[in-house]
């Protein structure tokens, strides 16, 4: 009985958190953001995640039934050349036939940098997105954001459509580089 009570308490917390949670919005990139040469809370950091947001939404349609939409938005400040590899993003997807699959959609990305005190930007090109089969059931989608240099800010977002509605992707609130803001929203109530 204690186990059932614990699960009920967890479910109640999730539901109450989801009703009061506010959705994360990425603000405009500023000259001050781009001019920063180091992160004050960790001056040795090669990069810093300025903000990231993840969510899962359970939805349905007449063709597939219930499925999960996992959304990820991330903005990273590149401080040193050693962090250039963070501009290459890799997303793994599992597929076990047409009825059980994960598919990435709505990939967007942008790089911002300062040039003569003015903010410049370049969008991720569709031709820079590649999907390959890594084995019988796994696929990998990779993309590299353009115009990476010291001081730039990269941001990207995508949706991962999944038939595995009870399986959440991993989420790290802290990694080997500092994360200034991180939020994951998971209400678990079908829309």
Key descriptive features of the protein:
191 residues; mainly beta; 3-stranded antiparallel β-sheet; 2 helices; 9 strands
In short:
This protein has 191 residues and is mainly beta. The protein has one domain. The protein is built from two helices and nine strands.
Could you characterize what this model shows?
This protein has 191 residues and is mostly beta strands. It has one domain (26-185). Helices cover 13% and strands 43% of the residues. The chain contains two helices and nine strands, in the order H-H-E-E-E-E-E-E-E-E-E. It has helices spanning 2-20, 31-35, and strands at 47-61, 65-78, 88-94, 102-115, 118-123, 129-133, 138-144, 153-162, 182-185. The strands form two sheets. Strands 5-4-8-2-1-9 form a six-stranded mixed sheet. The chain is elongated and about 50 Å long.
N-to-C series of helices and strands? HHEEEEEEEEE
The amount of beta strand, in percent, is 35-45%
Helical run tally: 2
* Alpha-carbon Rg, integer: 19 Å
- Please identify the structural class as seen in this structure: mainly beta
Mean pLDDT: 84
Gross morphology is elongated
Into which percent range does the helicity of residues fall? 10-25%
Overall number of strands = 9
Q: Main β-sheet: number of strands, strand sense, barrel status?
A: 6 strands, mixed
Number of domains: 1
Record the SSE blueprint.
Layout: H1 2-20, H2 31-35, E1 47-61, E2 65-78, E3 88-94, E4 102-115, E5 118-123, E6 129-133, E7 138-144, E8 153-162, E9 182-185
Parallel strand pairs: 1-9
Antiparallel strand pairs: 1-2, 2-8, 3-7, 4-5, 4-8, 6-7
């Amino acid at each position: 009985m204690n186990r059932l009570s614990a699960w009920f308490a967890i479910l109640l917390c999730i539901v109450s958190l989801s009703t009061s949670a506010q959705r994360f919005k990425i603000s405009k990139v500023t000259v001050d953001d781009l001019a920063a040469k180091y992160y004050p809370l960790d001056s040795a950091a090669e990069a810093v995640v300025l903000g990231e947001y993840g969510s899962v939404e359970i939805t349905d349609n007449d063709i597939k039934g219930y499925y999960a939409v996992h959304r990820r938005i991330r903005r990273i400040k590149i401080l040193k050349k050693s962090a250039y590899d963070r501009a290459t993003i890799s997303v793994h997807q599992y597929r076990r036939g047409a009825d059980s699959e994960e598919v990435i959609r709505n990939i967007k990305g942008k790089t911002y940098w300062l040039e003569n005190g003015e903010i410049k930007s370049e969008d991720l090109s569709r031709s820079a997105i590649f999907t390959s089969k890594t084995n019988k059931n796994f696929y990998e989608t990779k993309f590299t954001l353009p115009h990476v240099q010291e001081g730039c800010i990269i941001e990207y977002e995508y949706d991962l459509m999944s038939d595995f509605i009870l399986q959440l992707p991993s989420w790290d609130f802290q990694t080997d580089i500092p994360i200034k803001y991180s939020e994951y929203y998971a209400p678990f109530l079908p829309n």
